[in-house]
Amino acid sequence: MRLFEATHVFKHDWETVSLANWRKYPNDQTPHVRHVEILNQDVDPATGILRTERLIMVRQNVPTLIRKIFGGDTSYVLEYSEVDPRKQTMTMQSQNMTFSNLLSVGEYITFTPDPENTKHTLFTQSAQLKASNAL
Amino acid sequence: MESIDAKCTPLKREYDECFNKWYSEKFLDGKESSDCTALFKTYQKCLRQALKEKGLTKMIDDARPAIGSVFANYNDDNKVEDNE
């Protein structure tokens, strides 16, 4: 198991960054992301938290040999997120559903106001990679 | 962006537009009840049919625990629809 972590500060306020997240796809930098569907979305009346489940479909051009080894060029990721507008936190957790017998990637992302400058947004990302013995 | 099933694309776009507007103008200002429920239902009806046809529902159900999702599984379909 490998763990990767990264942080970044966006020089925009949290509300702007959280909205940008919803408007992220499609964009020129990620042509491989083909479909993003909302599977479930609601606001928890008790906490005011927006909860969303999304299905992301990714397809890229890969050489035929690679496609044969992996069994395809299309992969699916499931993502669950929570946005708390009162506390100004957004958390996202995602996991690949396809090829997970070979490689499992779980990613956890948070967006919060930067404690050093609340007009900016702190982004943290951590990913856990698990490769199976098959690789 | 197209939906995984072209039939659902206009419904998805309508919902996305409504959602982005509600999110930026109302939700972030503390008005938590959604304006977009009817559009969402229509989009979801189409999408769920597409997911069933493509055989994706089990794969999605199996992945929910790994990401901490609070939503009900598709094989509890009837329960979810009754709650609406």
TrEMBL record, chain A:
Domain of life: Eukaryota
Name of the molecule in the record: Phospholipid metabolism protein
Gene encoding the protein: UPS2
Species of origin: Coemansia aciculifera
UniProtKB/TrEMBL annotation, chain B:
Superkingdom classification of source: Eukaryota
The gene coding this protein: MDM35
Organism expressing this protein natively: Coemansia aciculifera
Protein name as annotated: Mitochondrial distribution and morphology protein 35
